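Below is how a single chain appears once it has passed through the pipeline. First comes the sequence as given, then the structure the pipeline wrote out for it. We keep one example in the README because the format questions we get most often are answered faster by looking than by reading.
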Amino acid sequence: MAQQTRPNTRSFSGTVGAGLGAVFGNGKPYFMLEHKDNSRYYRRGQTQTIIVDNALLGRDSNCQVRFDDASFPTVSRRHAAIVREGDQWKLVHLSDVNPTFVNGEKVVDYYYLQNGDEIQLSLRGPRMGFIIPPPASSDGAGYRENLGRITDRLGLFWDQAIRPYKTALIILGILLLLTIGGILAWEIYENKQTEEHFAQIEQDALDNYNYLQAQDENLRSQIADNLAKIDELENRLNGMESDLDTLKVELQHETDSLWTDVNKIWSALKRKPKKSGSGTVNPKFNNPAIDGCSRYVYYIRTTYIELKKANGNVKRIVDPAIQWSGSAFLLEDGRLVTARHVVEPWMTKSILLKSDIKCPKCQEADVLKYYRFIQEAKQHVRSGGRIIVHFSAVSPSSYVYEQLQFTNEEFQVNRRDDVDYGVYIDRKKFLVDETIGHDWAYVKTNHKGGLKIDINAAESLDRGVDLVILGYPFGSAATDEEIINFTPIISTATTSAKGLNNGLIYTTASGAESGCSGGPVFYTDNTGNMVVVGIISSGGGRSTGLVVPISALY
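Resulting structure:
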C-alpha cells in the first residue's frame, strides 16, 4: 500500500556535520528513543541513541529510525522527523495519509518535544519514549562522554549520518575512481598493459554498480510483492470478520422473529365468554361478582431464563425442570401484583415439593435440579451477576384472551430484612433468603380498570371473616390448549386472628394450593362488593395460611 508523504528538507550539516560533531566534538546535544513495541529492527524496551540534528522516522531504508513493512504497514515511508531547533527538539509530521500522535494527541504540523513524551506513528503504529539525556559534566559540555568509546560513536556516525547518503557516496566513489583512472590512463597512455588494467578496473566498477542496482531493484520488487500479499490477507480477514458479524445479526433476527411468531400465536388464541349455567348456586358465593373479578386474575409462568455474568457472558436456560408458575392480579390503578417468591424464588424461603409439580414427566431428579438452580442463581447474584427471568401472564377468563410479557427486573419489591435461611437438599445445604414478611411484587402496566382494594379493611379484619381466593394451581407444564380453557380456581379461608400479626393476615381452614401464590384474597364488604385485602403468600395445602395485606404495597 503506497504511503504518500510531504517533502522534508534534510541538510548535509544536520546529518553528516552533526554526526562528525558528535564523534569528535564536545558538548554536542543528542536524544534517545525508548522503543515500546517489538519490530524487526527493535525490541520492546530497547533504547536507540540519535546523534544527528535531523532524524527521519518511517519505513524508508534511508530513515534513521526505520520500521519494517510487516510489523507496521500503516507507518508511512517518511512518516515524521525529529529536528533540532536551537536547544529544543521539534517533531515534524510528514505523512499525508497516516497521523502522528504525542501523548495520545494528534500532531497537526509540528510539536516541540519534552523529556518523557510518548510518540506514536499512526493509530496502530509503534510507540517510542522521547528521552533527553543529561550532560556528563555540570557545564553541559560533556555529552560526548555519554556516547561511550570512539568506536561506539563511529558506529552511530556510520549508521545515522553516512548510511542515508550511502548510494550517493557509492556513485561519487565510482566517479572518483573513474576520474583517477582517467588521469592514470592519460599519464601512462603509452603503456598498453596499464591501459588494459585500467579498462578492467573501470569495467569491474561498472559491473559492480550494475549488480548493486539490480539487487536493489529485486529487493524493492520483493518488498512490493510482500506488501501486496499482506494487503490481500488483511482484506480477507476483514471480509471474514464482516461475514461473522452478518451471521450474528442474522441469527439474532431469526431468534427475535421466532419469539415474535410464538407470541403472535399465543396472543391469537381467543376464548369466547362463558354463558351462565343453570346449576345449583351456593348462596355463600356471589358467582356473578366472582365472574366479574376473574377477568383480572392472571396465570403467570416462566418462558426462559438468562444468567448474565459481570464479564458480559450470558447463559440461557430453557429446561422445563427449571420453570415455575403462579398467579397474579390487576388493580384498578394499572398495577399487576403477585408474590415476590413467584418473581424471584432464589430470594425466598418457599419450598417446592414434588407434589407441587403438575407434570407427569417430572421426577425427583427434576426437583433436585430446580433446587440446584436456586443455589446457582444465589451464588450468581452474590458474584455480581444478573438473573433475567422472562415471564408470560395470561388472563384466559377475560373476554379477549390476553397475554402480558415482562421480566423480573421490571418488578418493584421490598428487599428490607432479607436474611440467609438454610435449606437441606440431597444432604447438602442450600442457602436462600427468607422474605415472607415482604412477599409482594408489582409491575406497572398501561391497563385501565381492575380490582378494587380496601386498605383499612386489610389491616383491621376481625377473626372469623370469610375470605375468597382466586388462583391458578396448574403448574408450569400446562399447554396452550389447556390454558385457553382455564378459569381461576376458587378457594376459601377464614381469618384466624384480629388485625395484622407480624405484618401479616393469619388464616385458618385455607384451601389455597401452591400455584395460587400471588393470587388475590377478597372479602365481601357491606354493600356486597368483593374487594381485595391481600396476596396469597404461603401455606398452600395446609390448614394455616399467611396473607400479605394489600396495604404493604402503599
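Residues 379 and 385 are 9 Å apart (CA to CA).

See the next section for the split statistics.
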